[in-house]
Design brief:
- It is a single chain.
- Helices cover 40% and strands 21% of the residues.
- With 315 residues, the chain is an alpha/beta fold.
- Strands 3-2-1-4-8 form a 5-stranded mixed beta sheet, sandwiched between helices.
- 45% of the residues are buried.
- The site of zinc ion has 5 residues, from loops.
Length: 315
């Protein structure tokens, strides 16, 4: 069966699959990224994992994968296949597409086609085609994790912007003069509504240094007033960010994923109310949870590989 390699490289772990053309998963595997061994070791681990996946495909289906898609964090030059920078994994200007294409080439044959994608935009692509955005032609995907990142979905693809920074809703300023953000600005959405921001605020309010976003959500459900104040603060900031995006992009659906979305209705019920309350002329978006959880970026990387093959056919 014709298949592609789908690989998501995260800060601590890599998630991979062999993907059929309809997006179905034929094989899945996970490995540690091994960043404690340094950047060169991480790159070697990525290349080895991809080569092993290609062997797996040959063994199972009697033919090599037709292409590979790889999603990585940080700044990406998708057009040239270069992983420009990742604070987490330590690389700068890594020509990952070229390295993978050569490593995966048949002996004496041409380089394997490789698509390089951004992890959150790849996750958004998969949510749009296979998950919560299926059948939706305009959506915004927001991932609430350590930080906040996003992806703008238009007609089955993701709009990356002119420089690869499109969809960075985490750095929309919703509280001018607010908390200092890692990007250098103050009051960015991710300083107020990321899972880390909620964890920090709840640890401070509860006096428990080990308190986190999940324990805050549990305390909200239990009726704790301090937890409710912390939670509502994050919900209000997130609603402000979503309304700004609504005015600018007018998506029909906002898909919310990442650690904080695990809180389910504890998040979605007040969030929908806070968004609706803020709208004036804008049409209300559907605000829905992401469906694909932590495999989204890997599936999206595989979809990028299939897109690359279909472009080669039409070119
Ligand atoms: Zn920022």
């Amino acid at each position: 069966m014709k298949h592609v390699i789908a690989l998501d490289v995260g800060g601590t772990g890599m998630k991979a699959a062999l993907l059929a053309q309809d997006g179905s998963v034929l094989f899945e595997a996970r490995r540690p990224t091994g960043r404690e061994h340094g950047t060169d070791a991480v790159v070697a681990a990525i290349l080895d994992f991809a080569a092993d996946l290609a062997d797996e495909g040959r063994t199972r289906f009697g033919l090599a994968p037709a292409a590979a898609g790889v999603a990585v964090p940080g700044t990406i030059d998708e057009r040239n296949g270069i992983a420009v920078f990742s604070a987490n994994l330590g690389w700068r200007d890594l020509p990952l597409r070229k390295l993978l294409g050569e490593r995966l080439a048949a002996p004496g044959g041409p380089a394997m086609p490789v698509a390089l994608g951004h992890d959150v935009r790849s996750g958004g692509l998969a949510e749009g085609r296979l998950g919560a955005g299926r059948g939706v032609d305009r959506f915004l995907f927001i991932a609430l994790g350590t930080g906040i990142a996003g992806a703008i979905g238009i007609d089955g693809r993701i709009e990356a912007g002119a420089h690869g920074y499109g969809g960075e809703i985490g750095h929309v300023v919703v509280r001018p003069g607010g908390p200092q953000c890692g990007c250098g600005a103050r009051g960015c959405l991710e300083t107020l509504a990321s899972a880390s921001a909620v964890s920090r605020a709840w640890a401070e309010a509860s006096g428990d240094p080990d308190a986190d976003a999940a324990s805050c959500a549990a305390a909200v459900d239990a009726g704790d007033d301090r937890a409710r104040a912390v939670w509502q603060n994050a919900v209000d900031a997130l609603a402000d960010g979503i309304v700004l995006a609504q005015s600018l992009l007018d998506p029909s659906t906002v898909i919310v994923g990442g650690g904080l979305a695990e809180a389910g209705d504890t998040l979605f019920t007040p969030l929908r109310a806070a968004v609706t309350e803020r709208l004036t002329f804008q049409m209300p978006p559907k605000v829905v949870p992401a469906m694909l959880k932590d495999t989204a970026a890997s599936l999206g990387a595989g979809l990028l590989a299939w897109d690359l093959l279909s472009m080669e056919v039409t070119a």
